[in-house]
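To whoever picks this up:

The parser on our side crashed when reading a file containing two proteins. I've narrowed it down to the boundary between the first structure block and the second sequence. Both blocks are reproduced below exactly, byte for byte. First block:
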Amino acid sequence: MAASSETLLNALQWRYATKAFEAGRQIDAATWASLEQSLVLTASSYGLQPWKFLVITDAAIRSELRPHSWNQSQITDCSHLVVLLKKRTITAGDADRLINATATTRGIEASALDGYRQMIQVDLIDGPRSQIISQWAANQVYIALGNLLTSAALLGVDTCAIEGFSPADYDRILGLESDDYQSCVVCACGYRSASDKYASLAKVRYAASDLIEHR
């Protein structure tokens, strides 16, 4: 089942932040379903999964979002636009949801997870991290973003992660202003245009010896 090292590294060398997508070219349903599952299967702290993922394919909505995205063409030209949402806060209900789902999935009593439930309560709900929970949730969402970028590259799908947008305007347009989740980061997915000059540029990365230290 394991992909080869060569396959992985070739995919990562191939991918880049796509600036121009081939408008009208769509990701096929099976490939997109796999990419959605890559989001679902992403790791998160405590397994809490403090996120949702809005997949925007409606052209009218994307046209409305584009002016609030620095007018970047990727918003309207890509095949699938994903708005990755973060949970605004973590509550006792979120902890209970995870405990109950774990107990059901693994065929155990929820009471067997009381200690784990208490760890979440003490750390994220009552502890100091409750004061910075929005940043904690954003950190989790970025794990999902990274997973999507790598998974897409392995399937030959181009992506562009986008932070150049107005979260407040996205929340307004997408009806999230009173929701438990809010816009965090955006990812455009599709296929690069032949006219995108950035596709042929050499990848700029610092040497491994500068970045990785063994102790």
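<<boundary where parser fails>>
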Amino acid sequence: MQTKAVTALYDYWTRKRGERPLPLRSTIEPADIAAILPDVFILEHTRLADPRFRLAGTRFCAQFGRELKGTAFDALFAPDQRNRVARIAENVMAHGAPAIMQVQLVDGTLETTEAEIVLLPLASKGRVADRIIGAFAPLPGQRPPLSAFRYATLGSLSVIDPSRAHAAAGNRPAIPMPASIMAMRPPALGQTVSRVLHLRIFEGGRQAEDLREH
């Protein structure tokens, strides 16, 4: 974990979990994580579709230039990686195992930014995980993007053993992911990328709702 937002959310999730396999959604208090709330999101499991955003923080939405609530999590990624990303999120819930994704993001000027995403399982009730609380944060020391991110590509994945989640040793070595074809694009491919992804880019983004359920 290389960013404050991801580290803080993981530490909070671990405290709320205690000795249980995973924490309940009802125990998560937005006020407790106010400092990182703009970077936090919640995904929910659906029977008919891949995991989708139930809520997304304002800074997270602004960096992609659009409201993310209700959209599929894997839609943030290059098309050839979406199935893999959806399966990762589903496995976090199915096995109650936290995951950390190292990603590269491409903005409207085709500049890239390195970031990390943490996915932490939650249960609405009982012991079955049906939601994920996560955080998104660019790695420190990089130039801020000049425009909204168009898409992400997944570079590597680390899975935390749920039985050893309290210990640093529970964090398994990062597994490199097969490179996306979008990560190997020639510099002049910008217009083709736009047509493939069908995304509208809003400079500066719009203000999104805070991380609260209504």
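After patching the parser it read the second block fine. Helices lie at 4-17, 58-64, 82-95, 190-197. The longest strand covers residues 112-122.
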